[in-house]
């Protein structure tokens, strides 16, 4: 039965384009990406939970090593796919529902409902919300705009619940280096120092703190500084325990979800204790971060044939409906994400630091300097394969092919001549995927589906897999190139291909040794 909500407007024409919605949780606020698929992925990352996904057995098997693993990780989806060709998993009123595709609402309908349910953060653009002179992808002047931190703090929990201190809060001014006397101010300072470097990290932290606050409210506990070690152990058990899904079957949260929830809570209490706001750290040892990282395996990959096809499309002539200048820019953006393995936000221009920037040595070799997670800068050597597209784009802009020393210009410009924002960069990469999908033979349905669901982060996963699996780059080197905080995250890519492990085993036990052993027997 198709879900319905009589309180929602039946006329969707005003919100038919996702880009008419504004995300006021960003600083500065920006439009939701154009296109349903791009908007769904953006909103899912912003809110920290899935929004809409279409499942088939092919898609399910692609993300799981075996059908047994698929059944264990997605029981409701697996059960439906035994009787139906496709199933849809979508977010409705605070939980995920799984229904046959024939009875599911459309992706656009689900997207609009989710946007309307989060009115504190998303709103329809008004007549005065024209980008005007603001950089692409952002609105610099909004009469009702709020800062990201304030919006997220307001969404975290009722201020009165946090605006007090618990039994473990340190009232001694000399040792409480934060200089605050309640949890609300202490949480705000924690988010500002530990999560403000990335909007996605900030949203993820607030999502997990809201989860903890909701549990405290149900258990009549709190505030955070009043929780004992026993309380936090009980919360850990709650996060790890199976919960009833939309179909009534019990299902456990994914290991990565559990790891993130506990890591954020542990980080909060550890930081509070280090800064003197807490007299003790009741969350010591709460998170099993190392174990979770060891079990995480990246699954969002494009096949090598699909990447080769996309490279060929990007290297070809511009489509008839695309201006040569726009096509040159699109090719340059594709080359940077394809051959540098950067995150989406790492190519967004930072005026204060003049990053990202290109440094060229005496041999005309290029190095990309960026700022990544944790405000950490890193240098990425660019392979010569991507330099022609970058040089061609610079010449189209009227710049020399090689950046001169001390150049302080954004790598990528919008049509108005300003720096292109995250949404604009994302759209350009998606445009290459979309064009590549249209140029596939009719029988390549699986590759077409993969290209239609791919994003910039898929290119990052492909870059990492090329280093770790295909060319067996030492893990510390790959870790430095990718900007991973833990080498275990980098090592996870080695688990995506069993051939590497087999080669190691074969090399360790050569055939002559085995022949001697067999003769002895």
UniProtKB/TrEMBL annotation:
<dbReference type="Pfam" id="PF00589">
    <property type="entry name" value="Phage_integrase"/>
</dbReference>
<dbReference type="InterPro" id="IPR004107">
    <property type="entry name" value="Integrase_SAM-like_N"/>
</dbReference>
<dbReference type="GO" id="GO:0003677">
    <property type="term" value="F:DNA binding"/>
</dbReference>
<dbReference type="InterPro" id="IPR044068">
    <property type="entry name" value="CB"/>
</dbReference>
<dbReference type="Pfam" id="PF02899">
    <property type="entry name" value="Phage_int_SAM_1"/>
</dbReference>
<dbReference type="GO" id="GO:0007059">
    <property type="term" value="P:chromosome segregation"/>
</dbReference>
<dbReference type="InterPro" id="IPR010998">
    <property type="entry name" value="Integrase_recombinase_N"/>
</dbReference>
<dbReference type="InterPro" id="IPR002104">
    <property type="entry name" value="Integrase_catalytic"/>
</dbReference>
<dbReference type="GO" id="GO:0006310">
    <property type="term" value="P:DNA recombination"/>
</dbReference>
<feature type="domain" description="Tyr recombinase">
    <location>
        <begin position="302"/>
        <end position="506"/>
    </location>
</feature>
<feature type="region of interest" description="Disordered">
    <location>
        <begin position="1"/>
        <end position="33"/>
    </location>
</feature>
<feature type="compositionally biased region" description="Polar residues">
    <location>
        <begin position="1"/>
        <end position="10"/>
    </location>
</feature>
<dbReference type="InterPro" id="IPR050090">
    <property type="entry name" value="Tyrosine_recombinase_XerCD"/>
</dbReference>
<keyword id="KW-0159">Chromosome partition</keyword>
<keyword id="KW-0229">DNA integration</keyword>
<dbReference type="InterPro" id="IPR011010">
    <property type="entry name" value="DNA_brk_join_enz"/>
</dbReference>
<keyword id="KW-0233">DNA recombination</keyword>
<protein>
    <submittedName>
        <fullName>Integrase</fullName>
    </submittedName>
</protein>
<dbReference type="GO" id="GO:0015074">
    <property type="term" value="P:DNA integration"/>
</dbReference>
<dbReference type="InterPro" id="IPR013762">
    <property type="entry name" value="Integrase-like_cat_sf"/>
</dbReference>
<keyword id="KW-0238">DNA-binding</keyword>
<feature type="domain" description="Core-binding (CB)">
    <location>
        <begin position="181"/>
        <end position="273"/>
    </location>
</feature>
